[in-house]
Amino acid sequence: MRILVLGAGLVGGPIAADLAGDPEYSVTVADIDPLALDKLSESHKLATLRVDLSDSKLVKKLASGYGLVVSAVPGFLGHQTLRAILEAGTNVVDITFAPEDFQVLDSLAKSKNVTAICDMGVAPGMSHLLAAHCVRMMDEPQDVKIYVGGLPVERPWPYEYKAVFSPIDVIEEYTRPARFRKNGKEVVMPALSDVELMEFEGFGQVESFNSDGLRSLLTSLDVPNMIEKTLRYPGHIEKMLMLRETGFFRTDPVMVNGISIRPIDVTAKLLFPMIKLGEGEEDITVMSIQVTGKKDDKLKKLTYSLIDRYDVITKVHSMARTTGYAATMAARFLAGGYYTNPGINPPENLAYSDNAVPFILKGLADRGVIYQFKEEEIV
Questions:
Q1: Per-residue pLDDT tens over the stretch 258-290
Q2: Maximum Cα–Cα distance for the chain, whole Å?
């Protein structure tokens, strides 16, 4: 099968490299950055295309020549890119955390007989898949709680944070209102709200805040209480709140010496060099997916937990591993013909295919990304 990977960045690159390791796939990776493409082609058996992926017509033309596309473009390009791939009639696995609701493209995907697996990263992605898997095991699920964060091993001043995402996608976590469910009703809270210190088992102290990561789970799972919170080192959130409330994340233009400037563009330009996870800098991904409810006439809690670290051998960052390899395993599941469901499929849809969870978890474990499962009775 010919597979096209859109994006050769810190996550797209490892996606392309992982798929290129399978002899049954012919992999091409497309990006506008020649340095990123050259780096991949030097060490992996794949083809490269230097193209502007913001050009939807070009993306549609490219996608039509492949059996499967994996989209790893920045979030602000995600929706238009997904639409172009669907219009090309090509199956797709999409990791982009686009602000738009991808479900609005469901009729388009079905009209093209395309199976699209969207939000298939670590969170959203594995968080959704495993939450739905646990809900399926429950007789009466009551609560879903997801805690997740990507953190640097070193805690550099002043922000004590490093990111493998694009700067705009990072800022989105601090500005997009957080939707969750409480007592059966949807609740909307500001991002960075409800800050709490917590001990993450096997890792240490972190602080958490409300974030908008539930997305499709709000409509796909019938559970009365659901919430997602993002994890950071203590102290980071207050600094982001100060920046946000001062206006540094504003998207509406302001006039500075007669020049119209969007504050968010200046912030991204200044902030990202300080928080970008550099080559060789180690990171850790921590996640806990907790589902509580009645099972076998007892109140139980099912937990999937993950602590993943930078791979010193392959030099692939943990967030790229946990996000990218989730996407490549979903791509293999789709490419192998194990899943056919035309339309837009959030990750949790895969939980209702009996073989998907063990298939993906085994593939991740083979790549060193290991989820631990625990079932405990609540007395």
A1: 999 999 999 989 998 888 887 789 999 999 999
A2: 69
b/e per residue, 262-281, with b = 16+ CB within 10 A? ebbeebbeebbeebbbeeee
User: Residue 357's domain is classified under what CATH number?
Assistant: 3.40.50.720
Considering the domain architecture, whether residues 44 and 94 belong to the same structural domain is answered as yes
Residues paired with residue 254 on neighbouring β-strands, in sequence order: 261
Determine, yes or no, domain membership for 379. no
Candidates 211, 237, 199, 95; CA nearest to 146 is: 211
> What DSSP element (H or E) covers 102?
none
Alpha-carbon distances of 238 from 155, 156, 212, 274, rounded to whole Å: 16, 16, 18, 17
The range of the structural domain enclosing residue 164 comes to: 126-309
Residue 164, pLDDT > 70, answer: no
Q: Please tell me the total count of domains within the chain.
A: 2
Q: Are residues 101 and 240 in the same domain?
A: no
Neighbouring residues of 337: CB distance < 8 A, sequence distance ≥ 6: none
The 10s digit of each residue's pLDDT in 18-77 is 999 999 999 999 999 999 999 999 999 999 999 999 999 999 999 999 999 999 998 889
Phi then psi for 167, rounded to 5 degrees? -60, -35
Residues 107, 243 within the same domain: no
The letter for the amino acid at 316 is V
146 and 70 share a domain? no
Beta bridge partners of 231: 208
Say how far apart CA 135 and CA 285 lie, in whole Å: 23
Query: For residue 154, with 0-12 CB atoms within 10 Å meaning exposed, 13-18 middle and 19 or more buried, which class applies?
Result: exposed
Residue recorded with tokens 């020049």: 259
The answer to the question of residue 314 being in a domain is no
Element (DSSP H or E) covering residue 29 = strand 26-31
Instruction: Give the pTM.
Output: 0.93
